[in-house]
């Protein structure tokens, strides 16, 4: 079923789809220019992830959620909207699975609202200000906002990215996409890395063996985060090796 709740600006709604089940809720949060349904709904077909209450959340500006022009779209803004979803759904102690920017949002949520999150699973989440190696967020943020939204930057970006990312990015609001990319590069204070390493909950960090070059993972592991390298996968582990991705999410749940 689809549900919605207000967030931020008056009259703006964030939406999610949900499947019923037992145990702590599992919450999927997508990355920049993506949407949770296309990126994660197929995972529930794997037996190890079936039977759990699962929420597929589209962040403001993406997928089926509203895209208000008077919203900041920074990581803290997105985390506040995600908290509104969990509050409205009556969820506490969720297992939050976040990909890329969605993982960064999940970290901020767990840091700011610890009662909402009992476990984090992060797939190639941004941990520091600035881009991951080769990440397109830096290219989006390199455009002035007006030029990106109205001067051809959005169209040029759609031409540049591959068909898979373009399939959901073309549905995103250009203003939300640009502000989200800028917020991702701006990061948080403390940094997402500092928040993550300071949390006292089970944490798993997934890395595609052909994915982004993420620095400092030895230090992340030393803080108690379980770092797992997923074979035969790049940045979008859920598409490249969905079975291994599902198994990694289920391991420790």
UniProtKB/TrEMBL annotation:
Annotated SUPFAM superfamilies: alpha/beta-Hydrolases (SSF53474)
Top-level taxon of origin: Bacteria
GO-annotated molecular function: catalytic activity
A Pfam family it matches: Abhydrolase_1
AB hydrolase-1 domain location: 29-140
InterPro entries: AB_hydrolase_1, AB_hydrolase_fold, Carboxylesterase_BioH
Record-linked Gene3D superfamilies: alpha/beta hydrolase
Protein name per its UniProtKB record: Pimeloyl-ACP methyl ester carboxylesterase
Natural source organism: Actinacidiphila bryophytorum
Source lineage: Bacteria, Bacillati, Actinomycetota, Actinomycetes, Kitasatosporales
